[in-house]
From TrEMBL:
This is GntR family transcriptional regulator. SUPFAM superfamilies: GntR ligand-binding domain-like, Winged helix' DNA-binding domain. Residues 209-231 are annotated as: Disordered. It comes from the Bacteria. One of its GO terms (molecular function) is DNA-binding transcription factor activity.
């Protein structure tokens, strides 16, 4: 069975984001193919995609390597997100479907419930799903794809602290959905801008030492043809 290149790409990207591969480290096709249990063909295709996304660079005499973003490049990503997420919310107010609203409202209910209980791990996942769904509701595949890449890169470059007041944070999520449901693009944009800007101080650059990287490598030996990577 031929493993799709996008599955290999997801696996490599996830390991880059998790810090399994050091910035600047080489990514050889042979070792990657062995690690993920695939041939070199999907690995080669995956590396091309990851290079286009900015996670990988090709260097003379070294081949594919993990990119080494600068602090300025990392800061630019946060600025881009503060511009694009409000745009996505504004468009979602005009283009969302009832299915999108149902999912968004369900996520807000769960988020508010978990926030009251103080389940920070659940809140991180729910927040990611919320913003992913909001981007999809924009009706713009290009914008949605760009926001997804931004989220991956920000997760790679930054550690994000939990909100000081998670209940207030999820109240803002609910206000965004209310504006989207009413078709009020300007209010959806304004609330999303405020929500995004308030989250900026919680971001801390990951650049620095990585004493536990070797341990993460040992603990993440998964193959692409495992069930978790089939969807």
């Amino acid at each position: 069975m031929r493993i799709p290149a996008h599955s290999v790409c997801t696996a490599i990207r996830d390991d880059i984001v998790a810090g399994v591969y050091e910035r600047g480290s080489r990514l050889t096709e042979e070792l990657l193919a062995r690690r993920y249990g695939v041939s070199r063909v999907p690995v080669r295709e995956a590396l091309r995609t990851l290079e286009a996304e900015g996670f990988v660079v090709t260097r003379r005499h070294a081949g594919a390597c993990v990119a080494e973003p600068t602090e300025q490049e990392a800061a630019d990503l946060l600025e881009m997100r503060t511009l694009l997420e409000p745009l996505g919310a504004s468009r979602a107010a005009q283009r969302r479907t009832e299915a999108h609203l149902k999912v968004l409202r369900g996520l807000v209910r769960l988020g508010q419930e978990r926030a009251r209980r103080g389940n920070s791990d659940d809140l991180r996942s729910l927040g990611g799903w919320f913003h992913e769904t909001l981007a999809q509701a924009s009706g713009s595949p290009a914008l949605s794809s760009m926001l997804t890449q931004l989220r991956h890169k920000i997760a790679w470059m930054y550690a994000v602290e939990s909100p000081a007041d998670p209940v207030e944070s999820w109240t803002e999520h609910g206000a965004i959905v209310d504006a989207v449901a009413r078709g009020d693009g300007e209010r959806a944009r304004a609330i999303t801008t405020l929500h995004t800007e308030r989250s900026l101080p919680a971001h801390r650059l990951r650049f620095g030492s990585g004493q536990d990287r070797a341990e993460r490598v040992r603990n993440s030996q998964h193959a692409v043809n495992m069930p978790s990577l089939r969807h």
